[in-house]
Amino acid sequence: MRGVTGRLMLLDTASLYFRAYFGVPESVRAPDGTPVNAVRGLLDFIDRLVKDHRPDHLVACMDADWRPQWRVDLIPSYKAHRVAEERTEGPDEEEVPDTLSPQVPVIETVLDAVGIARVGVAGYEADDVIGTFTARATGPVDIVTGDRDLYQLVDDARGVRVLYPLKGVGTLQVTDEAVLREKYGVDGKGYADLALLRGDPSDGLPGVPGVGEKTAAKLLAEFGDLAGILAAVDDRRAKLTPTQRKRLDLARPYLAVAPKVVRVAGDVPLPDVDTALPRAPRNPGAVDALGARWGLGGSLQRLLRTLSV
Q1: Which of 60, 121, 216, 234 has its CA 20 to 30 A from that of 44?
Q2: pLDDT per residue over 205-249, tens digit each?
Q3: Spatial contact of 225 and 91, defined as CB atoms under 8 Å apart
Q4: CA-to-CA distance for 56 and 278, rounded, in angstroms?
Q5: How many CB atoms lie within 10 A of CB 6?
Q6: Is the CA virtual torsion 215, 216, 218, 222 positive or negative?
Q7: Phi, psi (degrees; rounded to nearest 5) at 10
Q8: What is the pTM of this model?
Q9: Whole-number Å distance between alpha carbons of 8 and 50
Q10: Residue 214 burial by Cβ neighbours in a 10 Å radius (0-12, 13-18, 19+)
């Protein structure tokens, strides 16, 4: 992180281009007929985010490994239902719509030509890259994601908030600790414990059987954190029902490994990148060629105008 001062915006890029893909009609195509709805939708998203929030630094965080083996080793069901093809070397292939997969390299090439920092690190998910940038930031941080897992990074004292798209990126839920307490009864630090207790079928996390979101929130309110809850299981004076005590006791093997799986890493070896918001394209010739090749038209030009201001 070279000279990061001011507001840092971190994009959970895959989360955003998936939303763009499903939110923009597939009839949006390049001159040769190739769908570019995810590409143009993402460029429109970034344009709106920069206009509305004016970050000083911007990083498109990528999934170099969407299902890291070290997480799978701890919880084999982790994202298992999303595997399209297992590979003996490198990350398994994720199930992605046929017309989205070819757009991802285009997105990466366009971001590079524009000069928007793009960071993915082998063996880690975008969440971990975001977690590490956040941990190292000295100023306020806006995390843009449609993944609630990143609520665990919300920290009012450090100015870290999550901008959660409700409809496109024109309507964002600005998620701070007040929002988390109102919706979930926990702060940012407590959200990871809530998530692992509750479980998450979309990530293949089983959670503790019989412990849903409301029960998890009540347990955390009563005992503080996961360690406090497990201590209460061993303390017969603690206010746990016999059923809760039994369920939590039986879930100890899961609860021993789940924190490492659910909590984002904060120690990813980040490359040395210039995160400053680009005012002019890094490679103007490539930008022109890509715009013409893929028919990116107004989406690309609007973003370039917004960046130049």
Answers
A1: 121
A2: 999 999 999 999 999 999 999 999 999 999 989 999 999 999 999
A3: no
A4: 9
A5: 14
A6: positive
A7: -115, 125
A8: 0.94
A9: 11
A10: exposed
